Protein backbone atom coordinates (compact mmCIF):
# COMPACT_ATOMS: atom_id res chain seq x y z
CA UNK A 1 0.00 0.00 0.00
CA UNK A 2 1.39 3.38 -1.02
CA UNK A 3 0.72 6.60 0.85
CA UNK A 4 -0.28 9.38 -1.52
CA UNK A 5 1.30 12.78 -1.15
CA UNK A 6 -1.79 14.14 0.57
CA UNK A 7 0.21 15.43 3.53
CA UNK A 8 2.46 17.84 1.67
CA UNK A 9 0.57 20.87 2.99
CA UNK A 10 -0.19 19.47 6.43
CA UNK A 11 2.29 21.84 8.06
CA UNK A 12 0.13 24.76 7.07
CA UNK A 13 -2.50 23.54 9.53
CA UNK A 14 -0.24 24.29 12.49
CA UNK A 15 0.61 27.70 11.11
CA UNK A 16 -2.83 29.06 10.39
CA UNK A 17 -5.15 27.14 12.73
CA UNK A 18 -8.39 28.81 13.71
CA UNK A 19 -10.98 27.57 16.15
CA UNK A 20 -14.09 26.92 14.08
CA UNK A 21 -16.50 25.30 16.47
CA UNK A 22 -20.22 25.71 16.24
CA UNK A 23 -22.48 26.39 19.18
CA UNK A 24 -24.34 23.12 18.70
CA UNK A 25 -24.38 20.91 21.74
CA UNK A 26 -22.79 17.63 20.69
CA UNK A 27 -22.98 15.78 23.98
CA UNK A 28 -25.27 12.72 23.84
CA UNK A 29 -25.31 12.80 20.05
CA UNK A 30 -25.22 9.37 18.39
CA UNK A 31 -22.51 9.11 15.75
CA UNK A 32 -22.93 6.66 12.85
CA UNK A 33 -25.74 4.96 14.79
CA UNK A 34 -23.04 3.37 16.95
CA UNK A 35 -21.21 5.82 19.21
CA UNK A 36 -22.62 8.16 21.83
CA UNK A 37 -20.72 11.38 22.60
CA UNK A 38 -20.22 11.60 26.36
CA UNK A 39 -17.58 14.06 27.52
CA UNK A 40 -15.14 16.58 26.07
CA UNK A 41 -11.57 15.54 26.89
CA UNK A 42 -9.50 17.78 24.65
CA UNK A 43 -9.64 20.88 22.48
CA UNK A 44 -7.17 22.18 19.94
CA UNK A 45 -6.85 24.60 17.05
CA UNK A 46 -8.72 22.37 14.64
CA UNK A 47 -11.20 20.38 16.63
CA UNK A 48 -12.55 18.84 19.79
CA UNK A 49 -11.92 15.37 21.19
CA UNK A 50 -14.65 13.60 23.12
CA UNK A 51 -14.81 10.43 25.12
CA UNK A 52 -17.60 8.24 23.81
CA UNK A 53 -19.01 4.76 24.02
CA UNK A 54 -20.19 2.10 21.62
CA UNK A 55 -23.94 1.99 22.20
CA UNK A 56 -24.20 -1.79 21.93
CA UNK A 57 -20.86 -3.10 23.19
CA UNK A 58 -20.25 -0.40 25.84
CA UNK A 59 -16.62 -0.10 24.83
CA UNK A 60 -15.00 3.32 25.20
CA UNK A 61 -13.93 5.29 22.14
CA UNK A 62 -12.32 8.62 21.37
CA UNK A 63 -14.22 10.85 18.94
CA UNK A 64 -12.42 13.70 17.23
CA UNK A 65 -14.56 16.35 15.53
CA UNK A 66 -13.67 19.15 13.15
CA UNK A 67 -16.06 21.77 11.79
CA UNK A 68 -17.01 21.46 8.13
CA UNK A 69 -16.35 25.21 7.97
CA UNK A 70 -12.65 24.59 8.46
CA UNK A 71 -10.66 24.74 5.20
CA UNK A 72 -8.19 22.23 6.63
CA UNK A 73 -9.12 18.57 6.48
CA UNK A 74 -6.87 17.57 9.35
CA UNK A 75 -9.18 14.75 10.45
CA UNK A 76 -9.30 13.29 6.95
CA UNK A 77 -5.51 13.41 6.76
CA UNK A 78 -5.18 11.82 10.17
CA UNK A 79 -7.62 9.03 9.32
CA UNK A 80 -5.73 8.27 6.10
CA UNK A 81 -2.35 8.22 7.83
CA UNK A 82 -3.61 6.00 10.65
CA UNK A 83 -5.18 3.56 8.19
CA UNK A 84 -1.98 3.49 6.15
CA UNK A 85 0.20 2.79 9.18
CA UNK A 86 -2.19 0.21 10.61
CA UNK A 87 -2.40 -1.57 7.25
CA UNK A 88 1.40 -1.76 7.30
CA UNK A 89 1.59 -3.40 10.71
CA UNK A 90 1.93 -0.47 13.12
CA UNK A 91 -0.05 -1.27 16.25
CA UNK A 92 1.17 1.35 18.74
CA UNK A 93 -1.25 3.86 17.23
CA UNK A 94 -5.03 4.31 17.37
CA UNK A 95 -7.04 2.22 14.92
CA UNK A 96 -9.72 4.03 12.94
CA UNK A 97 -13.12 2.66 13.93
CA UNK A 98 -15.17 5.05 11.81
CA UNK A 99 -14.67 8.20 9.76
CA UNK A 100 -17.43 10.32 8.23
CA UNK A 101 -19.72 13.33 8.56
CA UNK A 102 -22.08 13.99 11.47
CA UNK A 103 -24.24 17.08 11.06
CA UNK A 104 -21.77 19.96 10.54
CA UNK A 105 -18.69 18.04 11.64
CA UNK A 106 -16.15 15.66 10.23
CA UNK A 107 -15.77 12.85 12.75
CA UNK A 108 -13.04 10.35 13.47
CA UNK A 109 -13.75 7.56 15.95
CA UNK A 110 -10.71 5.75 17.37
CA UNK A 111 -9.47 3.65 20.26
CA UNK A 112 -9.74 5.30 23.65
CA UNK A 113 -6.72 5.21 25.98
CA UNK A 114 -7.44 5.78 29.64
CA UNK A 115 -4.02 6.69 31.05
CA UNK A 116 -1.73 9.55 30.09
CA UNK A 117 2.01 9.15 30.34
CA UNK A 118 2.08 11.73 33.13
CA UNK A 119 -0.53 9.83 35.13
CA UNK A 120 1.58 6.72 34.75
CA UNK A 121 4.75 8.47 35.92
CA UNK A 122 2.95 9.95 38.92
CA UNK A 123 1.97 6.45 39.96
CA UNK A 124 5.59 5.37 39.53
CA UNK A 125 6.78 8.26 41.70
CA UNK A 126 4.32 7.27 44.43
CA UNK A 127 5.74 3.75 44.47
CA UNK A 128 9.39 4.79 44.50
CA UNK A 129 9.52 8.02 46.52
CA UNK A 130 12.66 6.80 48.27
CA UNK A 131 14.31 5.34 45.16
CA UNK A 132 15.08 7.93 42.46
CA UNK A 133 16.92 5.38 40.34
CA UNK A 134 13.78 3.24 40.04
CA UNK A 135 11.91 6.25 38.67
CA UNK A 136 14.74 7.10 36.28
CA UNK A 137 14.84 3.55 34.96
CA UNK A 138 11.09 3.59 34.35
CA UNK A 139 11.51 6.84 32.44
CA UNK A 140 14.27 5.23 30.37
CA UNK A 141 11.95 2.33 29.54
CA UNK A 142 9.33 4.81 28.36
CA UNK A 143 11.85 6.69 26.23
CA UNK A 144 13.06 3.43 24.66
CA UNK A 145 9.46 2.56 23.78
CA UNK A 146 8.92 6.04 22.35
CA UNK A 147 11.97 5.64 20.11
CA UNK A 148 10.84 2.16 19.04
CA UNK A 149 7.40 3.48 18.06
CA UNK A 150 8.98 6.27 16.05
CA UNK A 151 11.18 3.68 14.35
CA UNK A 152 8.03 1.87 13.21
CA UNK A 153 6.27 4.90 11.77
CA UNK A 154 9.46 6.37 10.30
CA UNK A 155 10.07 3.05 8.56
CA UNK A 156 6.90 3.82 6.62
CA UNK A 157 8.05 7.37 5.78
CA UNK A 158 5.78 9.14 8.26
CA UNK A 159 7.03 11.97 10.48
CA UNK A 160 4.79 12.81 13.44
CA UNK A 161 5.95 16.44 13.90
CA UNK A 162 4.18 16.94 17.24
CA UNK A 163 6.01 14.69 19.70
CA UNK A 164 5.23 15.69 23.29
CA UNK A 165 4.13 13.92 26.50
CA UNK A 166 0.45 14.65 25.86
CA UNK A 167 0.56 12.61 22.66
CA UNK A 168 1.63 9.38 24.33
CA UNK A 169 -0.98 7.26 26.08
CA UNK A 170 -0.93 3.94 27.92
CA UNK A 171 -3.44 1.10 27.65
CA UNK A 172 -3.00 -2.38 29.13
CA UNK A 173 0.58 -1.52 29.97
CA UNK A 174 1.43 -0.67 26.35
CA UNK A 175 2.54 2.74 25.06
CA UNK A 176 0.68 4.32 22.15
CA UNK A 177 1.32 7.42 20.04
CA UNK A 178 -1.70 9.56 19.17
CA UNK A 179 -2.64 12.76 17.31
CA UNK A 180 -1.29 12.49 13.76
CA UNK A 181 -3.12 15.65 12.68
CA UNK A 182 0.01 17.45 11.44
CA UNK A 183 2.04 14.40 10.47
CA UNK A 184 3.68 14.34 7.05
CA UNK A 185 5.16 11.84 4.64
CA UNK A 186 8.66 11.66 3.19
CA UNK A 187 8.70 10.44 -0.38
CA UNK A 188 12.41 10.56 -1.19
CA UNK A 189 15.27 11.55 1.13
CA UNK A 190 17.46 12.40 -1.87
CA UNK A 191 15.04 15.15 -2.87
CA UNK A 192 14.94 16.81 0.55
CA UNK A 193 16.08 20.43 0.70
CA UNK A 194 18.89 20.29 3.25
CA UNK A 195 19.11 24.07 3.67
CA UNK A 196 16.92 26.13 6.03
CA UNK A 197 13.92 27.19 3.96
CA UNK A 198 11.06 27.69 6.42
CA UNK A 199 10.15 30.88 8.25
CA UNK A 200 7.52 29.33 10.53
CA UNK A 201 7.61 26.58 13.13
CA UNK A 202 5.56 23.38 13.05
CA UNK A 203 4.48 21.61 16.23
CA UNK A 204 4.41 22.51 19.92
CA UNK A 205 7.00 25.24 20.64
CA UNK A 206 8.24 23.66 23.88
CA UNK A 207 9.02 20.34 22.22
CA UNK A 208 9.99 21.10 18.62
CA UNK A 209 13.67 20.50 17.98
CA UNK A 210 16.45 23.04 17.83
CA UNK A 211 16.62 22.57 14.06
CA UNK A 212 12.98 23.57 13.54
CA UNK A 213 13.77 26.89 15.21
CA UNK A 214 16.55 27.31 12.64
CA UNK A 215 14.12 26.98 9.74
CA UNK A 216 14.88 23.42 8.62
CA UNK A 217 12.16 21.12 7.31
CA UNK A 218 10.95 18.71 10.01
CA UNK A 219 12.57 15.33 9.53
CA UNK A 220 13.15 12.04 11.36
CA UNK A 221 15.81 13.50 13.63
CA UNK A 222 13.40 16.14 14.92
CA UNK A 223 10.88 13.60 16.24
CA UNK A 224 13.75 11.89 18.09
CA UNK A 225 15.11 15.12 19.55
CA UNK A 226 11.61 15.94 20.79
CA UNK A 227 11.68 12.60 22.64
CA UNK A 228 14.86 13.79 24.34
CA UNK A 229 13.10 16.96 25.46
CA UNK A 230 10.30 14.76 26.84
CA UNK A 231 12.90 12.97 28.98
CA UNK A 232 14.10 16.29 30.36
CA UNK A 233 10.52 17.20 31.21
CA UNK A 234 9.88 13.87 32.94
CA UNK A 235 12.97 14.33 35.10
CA UNK A 236 12.95 18.08 35.71
CA UNK A 237 9.19 18.66 35.92
CA UNK A 238 9.44 21.50 33.41
CA UNK A 239 11.68 22.55 30.56
CA UNK A 240 14.18 25.42 30.87
CA UNK A 241 12.48 27.13 27.93
CA UNK A 242 8.88 26.53 29.07
CA UNK A 243 8.13 30.02 30.35
CA UNK A 244 9.79 32.38 27.92
CA UNK A 245 9.27 36.01 28.90
CA UNK A 246 10.00 38.70 26.33
CA UNK A 247 11.04 42.22 27.20
CA UNK A 248 8.18 44.49 28.28
CA UNK A 249 9.26 47.30 25.99
CA UNK A 250 8.87 45.01 22.97
CA UNK A 251 5.21 45.88 22.54
CA UNK A 252 5.25 46.00 18.75
CA UNK A 253 6.41 42.52 17.83
CA UNK A 254 7.03 42.46 14.08
CA UNK A 255 6.62 38.70 13.70
CA UNK A 256 3.78 36.35 14.57
CA UNK A 257 4.58 33.88 17.33
CA UNK A 258 4.86 31.02 14.83
CA UNK A 259 7.61 32.87 12.94
CA UNK A 260 11.13 31.64 13.63
CA UNK A 261 12.27 35.24 14.14
CA UNK A 262 9.73 35.93 16.86
CA UNK A 263 11.63 36.77 20.04
CA UNK A 264 10.25 33.76 21.92
CA UNK A 265 11.43 31.37 19.23
CA UNK A 266 14.83 33.03 19.09
CA UNK A 267 15.17 32.55 22.85
CA UNK A 268 13.99 28.94 22.62
CA UNK A 269 16.51 28.27 19.86
CA UNK A 270 19.32 29.58 22.03
CA UNK A 271 18.25 27.51 25.03
CA UNK A 272 17.93 24.36 22.89
CA UNK A 273 21.39 24.92 21.41
CA UNK A 274 24.08 22.34 22.11
CA UNK A 275 26.03 24.46 24.58
CA UNK A 276 22.97 24.83 26.79
CA UNK A 277 22.05 21.14 26.44
CA UNK A 278 25.50 20.30 27.83
CA UNK A 279 24.94 22.74 30.67
CA UNK A 280 21.59 21.13 31.50
CA UNK A 281 23.18 17.70 31.73
CA UNK A 282 26.01 18.96 33.89
CA UNK A 283 23.42 20.27 36.37
CA UNK A 284 21.47 17.02 36.26
CA UNK A 285 24.63 15.03 36.88
CA UNK A 286 25.49 17.14 39.90
CA UNK A 287 21.97 16.82 41.29
CA UNK A 288 21.51 13.09 40.85
CA UNK A 289 24.99 11.61 41.24
CA UNK A 290 24.83 10.19 44.75
CA UNK A 291 28.45 9.13 45.21
CA UNK A 292 29.84 12.68 45.27
CA UNK A 293 33.49 11.77 45.72
CA UNK A 294 36.46 13.81 44.45
CA UNK A 295 36.68 11.69 41.31
CA UNK A 296 33.39 13.26 40.18
CA UNK A 297 34.61 16.79 40.75
CA UNK A 298 35.54 17.47 37.13
CA UNK A 299 32.25 16.85 35.37
CA UNK A 300 31.79 20.41 34.15
CA UNK A 301 33.40 19.81 30.77
CA UNK A 302 31.45 16.81 29.45
CA UNK A 303 28.95 14.52 31.21
CA UNK A 304 30.30 11.47 29.41
CA UNK A 305 33.62 11.98 31.24
CA UNK A 306 32.03 10.03 34.08
CA UNK A 307 32.35 6.92 31.95
CA UNK A 308 36.02 7.28 31.06
CA UNK A 309 39.37 6.69 32.69
CA UNK A 310 39.19 6.11 36.43
CA UNK A 311 35.48 6.85 36.59
CA UNK A 312 34.26 3.32 35.85
CA UNK A 313 32.68 2.98 39.28
CA UNK A 314 29.73 5.29 38.85
CA UNK A 315 26.25 5.00 40.27
CA UNK A 316 23.18 4.11 38.24
CA UNK A 317 21.86 7.67 38.29
CA UNK A 318 24.95 8.92 36.50
CA UNK A 319 24.68 6.08 33.98
CA UNK A 320 21.12 7.09 33.10
CA UNK A 321 22.14 10.67 32.36
CA UNK A 322 25.28 9.62 30.53
CA UNK A 323 23.14 7.41 28.29
CA UNK A 324 20.63 10.16 27.59
CA UNK A 325 23.44 12.61 26.90
CA UNK A 326 24.88 10.18 24.35
CA UNK A 327 21.40 9.86 22.83
CA UNK A 328 21.22 13.65 22.48
CA UNK A 329 24.70 13.68 20.95
CA UNK A 330 23.72 11.14 18.31
CA UNK A 331 20.41 12.85 17.48
CA UNK A 332 21.86 16.36 17.29
CA UNK A 333 24.59 15.08 14.96
CA UNK A 334 22.13 13.54 12.48
CA UNK A 335 21.98 15.22 9.09
CA UNK A 336 18.61 16.40 7.79
CA UNK A 337 18.48 13.71 5.10
CA UNK A 338 19.93 10.95 7.30
CA UNK A 339 17.87 7.96 8.44
CA UNK A 340 18.53 7.22 12.13
CA UNK A 341 19.55 3.82 13.49
CA UNK A 342 16.77 3.20 15.98
CA UNK A 343 18.13 -0.04 17.43
CA UNK A 344 21.44 1.70 18.17
CA UNK A 345 19.62 4.54 19.91
CA UNK A 346 17.65 2.08 22.05
CA UNK A 347 20.85 0.22 22.95
CA UNK A 348 22.53 3.48 23.95
CA UNK A 349 19.63 4.39 26.22
CA UNK A 350 19.78 1.04 28.03
CA UNK A 351 23.55 0.67 28.21
CA UNK A 352 24.81 -0.75 31.54
CA UNK A 353 21.38 -0.46 33.19
UniProtKB/TrEMBL annotation:
UniProt KW Glycosyltransferase keyword: no
Classification via SMART domains: S_TKc (SM00220)
UniProt-recorded Gene Ontology molecular function terms: ATP binding; protein serine/threonine kinase activity
Pfam families on file: Pkinase
Residue intervals of the Protein kinase domain: 35-353
Coiled coil ranges: none
ATP-binding listed as a keyword: yes
Keywords associated with the record: ATP-binding, Nucleotide-binding
Protein name: non-specific serine/threonine protein kinase
Organism, scientific name: viral metagenome
Lineage, broadest ranks: unclassified sequences, metagenomes, organismal metagenomes
Amino acid sequence: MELQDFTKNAGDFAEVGRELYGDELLLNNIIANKYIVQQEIGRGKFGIVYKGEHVKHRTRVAIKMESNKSPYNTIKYEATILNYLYHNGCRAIPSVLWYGIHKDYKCLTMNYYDQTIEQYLKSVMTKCASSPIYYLKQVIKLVVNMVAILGQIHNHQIIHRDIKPENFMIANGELHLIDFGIASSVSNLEEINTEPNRDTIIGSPKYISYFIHQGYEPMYRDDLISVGYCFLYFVMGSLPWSNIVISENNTQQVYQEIHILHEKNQLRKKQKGWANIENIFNKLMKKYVIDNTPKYANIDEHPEALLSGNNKKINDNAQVFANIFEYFTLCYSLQLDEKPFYEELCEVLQKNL
